[in-house]
């Protein structure tokens, strides 16, 4: 069952006469009890997409759907939507008011939505977030907590509204390595126990491997590759995905991308990744006869299908036998690690 969906979503910003296409045609679904990782480097549009799914940005075209119903932008509709779809920010220190106790921080949402049994909600949310006994934390302030405990308070603040979807923007980026695993395990436990769905926004493919059911890789406002996590991260087809994976510690040879970082005000013709593409630069695209297409023919917008799909002229042109051999080799390599 699809809970949250982006359908041909486009978001634009205009500044000093320049139009930035931050999200430039995205189809994405998050199903019931599913964790989807949205991956990409800074500036690719993933945070703007997440904010739009929350109703914090209004799309230029396309639509956001929740439970199959398009999101309306009246105050009442947005209020109801944000109770069902809650945001978890990456910096717990910045998202918690230092003058508010843990109780006040978690109770803020139920008070805004005028929900009954405030004390019980706060205690239950803290307990589900792993802060037990919850009463022990009621009167503490953020500076009295560890980084992991502060992130659990932020998660508890979302859980206090009984949402069905969490949108977590870099949920462990500011945490020590020793605490990251605890927070990821908590998100998985909430999915298993409460049936929560989650969209996890991250630049870290290692995090996606540990937590996600599906991965969507975003570059310059579009999803360029998506599919089941095992398929995408063991046998990536898009050169951008390959470059992101190559910086993981287990990778034998990192790919250094040339060219300029993505600029949403200057989207190149053809494949939007071609100015930095290592496949095009190496001559491999010319060998398959698609180098001209890479620089001239735009690629179609990927659908919201859960099956593996890629927007790449070179990947589409490679013989099926070569693709199978590459996928089999990648799978063996991951198992060996």
TrEMBL record:
Residues 316-337 are annotated as: Disordered. GO terms for molecular function: ATP binding. InterPro entries: AAA+_ATPase, ABC_transp_ATP-bind, ABC_transporter-like_ATP-bd, ABC_transporter-like_CS, Oligopep_ABC_C, P-loop_NTPase. Residues 4-245 form the ABC transporter domain. Keywords: ATP-binding, Nucleotide-binding, Transport. The keyword Transcription does not apply. It comes from the Bacteria. Belongs to the ABC transporter superfamily. PANTHER family: D,D-DIPEPTIDE TRANSPORT ATP-BINDING PROTEIN DDPF-RELATED, TRANSPORT ATP-BINDING PROTEIN. This is ABC transporter ATP-binding protein.
């Amino acid at each position: 069952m699809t809970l949250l969906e982006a359908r041909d979503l486009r978001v634009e910003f205009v500044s000093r006469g320049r139009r930035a296409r931050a999200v430039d045609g995205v189809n994405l679904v998050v199903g019931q009890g599913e964790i989807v990782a949205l991956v990409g480097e800074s500036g690719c549009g993933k945070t703007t997409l997440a904010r739009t799914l929350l109703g914090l940005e209004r799309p230029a075209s396309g639509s956001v759907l929740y439970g199959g119903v398009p999101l309306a932008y009246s105050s009442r509709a947005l209020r109801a939507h944000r109770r069902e779809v809650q945001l978890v920010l990456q910096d717990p220190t910045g998202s918690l008011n230092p003058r508010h106790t843990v109780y006040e921080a978690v109770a803020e949402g139920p008070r805004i939505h005028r929900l009954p049994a405030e004390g019980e909600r706060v205690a239950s949310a803290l307990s589900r977030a792993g802060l037990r006994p919850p009463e022990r934390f009621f009167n503490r302030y953020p500076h009295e907590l560890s980084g992991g405990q502060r992130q659990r308070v932020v998660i508890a603040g979302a859980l206090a509204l009984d949402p069905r979807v969490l949108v977590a923007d870099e949920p462990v980026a500011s945490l020590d390595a020793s605490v990251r695993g605890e927070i990821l395990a908590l998100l998985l436990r909430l999915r298993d126990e409460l049936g929560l769905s989650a969209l996890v926004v991250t630049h870290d493919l290692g995090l996606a491997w540990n937590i996600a059911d599906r991965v969507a890789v975003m570059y310059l406002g579009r999803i360029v590759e998506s599919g089941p996590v095992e398929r995408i991260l063991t046998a990536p087809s898009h050169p951008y995905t390959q470059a992101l994976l190559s910086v993981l510690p287990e990778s034998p040879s990192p790919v250094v991308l040339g060219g300029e970082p993505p600029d949403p005000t200057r989207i190149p013709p053809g494949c939007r990744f071609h100015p930095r593409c290592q496949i095009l630069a190496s001559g491999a695209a010319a060998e398959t006869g698609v180098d001209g297409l890479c620089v001239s023919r735009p690629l179609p917008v990927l659908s919201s299908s859960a099956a593996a799909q890629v927007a790449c002229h070179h990947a589409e042109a490679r013989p099926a036998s070569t693709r199978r051999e590459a996928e089999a080799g990648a799978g063996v390599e991951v198992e060996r690690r």
